[in-house]
């Protein structure tokens, strides 16, 4: 975005804030007059309304932006990242790692020196690593648990539910090398791959991991998943372990592999998605009909958004692991981002935030008067990612 565009955007925001402030002032003055009148005439109207006020419904969702610590100002523009850890917000920008509570109050701050910081999170910890660099750090929401360096440049890093960290590097000898560390930073597993590792996914209790590799077969890109259990590896074979199982080659470029149901996995590829049971047995797949926009999964539900650019509409596809059902639903608006939380699908459109069931049936929506880069659903709130600030709205 050009500097002039940013200046104009900030100027518009200042004007909007000024208008909102003026409106609030007018409302306060008017409300004060009404309240005075109400107090003076209380004995006339109160007996007739006794008990009625408790029956008035309160709207669940509101587009009103939170005040107090919000908005959170971010330096460096849109390069920042926002993730949820342990009921708090983990934020990484070009120079710092921050943790805020759900109300935006600062909990922890540390300056880093990473050239290309990337943040990935587990249930209660955040892993910050330097993409292309040789450093990474594990954080709780209160402190730096440990920091380490690698011999080779880091390609990707992941973290499991038990704070187990997976670090994938590139070396002169191997296209990819994986090192796994336990919650204290002790190395517990290594794997050297002749194929490029593009993702690592821990199982539910972090006792093993699914390694996703990519290669070429018959002139086509193919992906394969190999499953390893750390407790099945002897120290003598730690540098050359044998997988518990591996899938057949899947003709797609795997973008992400995520847990799906009870230790099943789902592969989100660039041309299709496929899911497997806990033994690596293929269950089903879905081939894309349009351009993939975004995807997400949580528990037994996975969701994908596709774009119909000609009609400026979207298609929502949901997959339920337990039932094995695939649902398709055409949306009459463009959808930008998606997040699955439990059995509810949250979507960001050009106009606001919407939620629907796994079958695609609308639950609720709110309109926003400002454009945002993305969103994060956590607890009863939606956190909105602006160009250089983070806002929050209620969304039960």
Describe this structure in words.
Strands 1, 2, 31, 32 and 33 form a five-stranded antiparallel β-sheet that branches. The protein has helices spanning 3-40, 42-49, and strands at residues 61-65, 72-73, 81-85, 88-92, 96-100, 106-111, 117-121, 126-130, 135-139, 144-149, 154-159, 165-169, 176-181, 187-193, 196-202, 208-217, 220-229, 245-246, 254-260, 264-269, 272-276, 282-287, 291-298, 301-308, 313-320, 325-331, 335-341, 344-349, 352-357, 362-367, 374-378, 381-385, 389-395. Strand 7 and strand 8 (126-130) form a beta hairpin. 12% of the residues lie in helices and 50% in strands. It is mainly β. The protein is globular, with a radius of gyration of 25 Å. The two termini are 34 Å apart. The protein is built from two helices and 33 strands.
Jot down its keywords.
396 residues; 5-stranded antiparallel sheet; 2 helices
Topology at a glance:
Elements: H1 3-40, H2 42-49, E1 61-65, E2 72-73, E3 81-85, E4 88-92, E5 96-100, E6 106-111, E7 117-121, E8 126-130, E9 135-139, E10 144-149, E11 154-159, E12 165-169, E13 176-181, E14 187-193, E15 196-202, E16 208-217, E17 220-229, E18 245-246, E19 254-260, E20 264-269, E21 272-276, E22 282-287, E23 291-298, E24 301-308, E25 313-320, E26 325-331, E27 335-341, E28 344-349, E29 352-357, E30 362-367, E31 374-378, E32 381-385, E33 389-395
Antiparallel strand pairs: 1-33, 2-33, 3-4, 4-5, 5-6, 7-8, 8-9, 9-10, 11-12, 12-13, 13-14, 15-16, 16-17, 17-18, 19-20, 20-21, 21-22, 23-24, 24-25, 25-26, 27-28, 28-29, 29-30, 31-32, 32-33
């Amino acid at each position: 975005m050009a500097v002039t565009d940013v200046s104009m955007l900030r100027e518009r925001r200042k004007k909007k804030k000024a208008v909102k402030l003026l409106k609030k002032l007018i409302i306060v003055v008017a409300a004060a007059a009404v309240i005075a009148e109400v107090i003076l005439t209380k004995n006339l109207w109160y007996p007739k309304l006794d008990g009625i006020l408790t029956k008035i419904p309160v709207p669940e969702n509101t587009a009103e932006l939170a005040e107090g610590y919000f908005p959170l100002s971010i330096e460096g523009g849109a390069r920042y990242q926002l993730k949820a850890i342990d009921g708090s917000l983990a934020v990484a920008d070009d120079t710092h790692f921050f943790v805020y509570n759900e109300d935006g109050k600062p909990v922890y701050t540390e300056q880093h020196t990473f050239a290309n910081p990337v943040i990935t999170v587990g249930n209660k910890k955040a892993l910050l690593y330097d993409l292309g660099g040789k450093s990474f750090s594990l954080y709780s929401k209160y402190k730096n648990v440990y920091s380490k360096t690698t011999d080779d440049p880091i390609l990707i890093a992941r973290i499991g539910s038990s704070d187990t960290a997976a670090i994938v590097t590139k070396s002169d000898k191997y296209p990819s090398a994986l090192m796994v560390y336990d919650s204290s930073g002790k190395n517990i597993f290594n794997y050297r791959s002749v194929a490029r590792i593009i993702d690592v996914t821990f199982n539910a209790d972090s006792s093993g991991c699914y390694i996703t590799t990519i290669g070429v077969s018959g002139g086509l890109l193919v992906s394969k998943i190999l499953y390893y259990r750390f407790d099945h590896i002897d120290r003598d074979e730690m540098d050359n372990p044998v997988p518990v199982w591996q899938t057949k080659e899947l003709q797609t470029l795997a973008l992400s592999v995520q847990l799906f149901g009870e230790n099943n996995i789902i592969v989100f590829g660039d041309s299709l998605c496929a899911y497997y049971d806990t033994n690596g047995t293929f269950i089903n797949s879905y081939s894309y009909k349009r351009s993939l926009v975004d995807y997400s999964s949580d528990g037994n539900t996975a969701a994908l958004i596709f774009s119909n650019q000609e009609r400026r509409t979207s298609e929502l596809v949901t997959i339920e692991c337990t039932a094995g059902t695939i649902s398709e639903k055409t949306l009459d608006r463009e959808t930008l981002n998606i997040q699955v939380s439990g059995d509810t699908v949250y979507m960001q459109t050009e106009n606001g935030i919407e939620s629907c069931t796994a079958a695609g049936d609308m639950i609720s929506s709110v309109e926003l008067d400002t454009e945002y880069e993305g969103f994060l659903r956590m607890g009863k709130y939606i956190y909105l990612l602006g160009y250089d600030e983070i806002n929050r709205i209620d969304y039960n």
